Fold this sequence. Notes:
- By secondary structure, this protein is an alpha/beta fold.
- Mean pLDDT is 84; it is low at 1-10.
- A 4-stranded parallel sheet has the order 6-3-7-8, with helices on both faces. The protein has a two-stranded antiparallel ribbon with strand order 1-2.
- It has helices at residues 22-30, 52-64, 75-78, 82-87, 111-119, and strands at 4-5, 8-9, 15-20, 36-37, 40-41, 43-45, 68-74, 94-98.
- The radius of gyration is 15 Å and the shape is globular.
- The chain has 5 helices and 8 strands.
Amino acid sequence: IPVVKGAIMDESGKLVAIIGDEDTVTGFVLAGIGHRTVEGQNFLIVKQETEIPVIEDAFRSYTSRNDVGIILINQHIANDIRHLLRDYNKTIPTVLEIPSKDQPYDPDQDSIMQRVNLMLGGTGN
C-alpha cells in the first residue's frame, strides 16, 4: 500500500492499480487504493460499453508505470485481454486476477495459476 504525501508518492511504496467492474473498483477505491493526479489515475471502471482497446491501453499503461506494484483485474475482464496477459512476463507489477460479485473465480483460466502449475510439474492448459 502506498504512502502518499500530498500529490507525491513516497519512494517506500507502490500503488495498486485496478481494472474491474463498477462494484469492484468502487469497493477498492473506498478502501483507499484510488490515486488520481493530473497525469491520470490508477483504476479503470469497465462497463458493458467499454471497448477492448480501452482496457488494453489501461493494462499497457499500468504495466509500464514505475509507481504501480500490483494490478488487480477482474477475471472476466482479464479474459477479454488474455492475449496481453499471456505475453506479460514481468514480476512487478504483479498481475492478480480476482473474482467479481457476479462472476466466480476459475483458477484454470488464471495465467499465473497456469504458470505455477507448470512449475510444480503439472501439464498447464
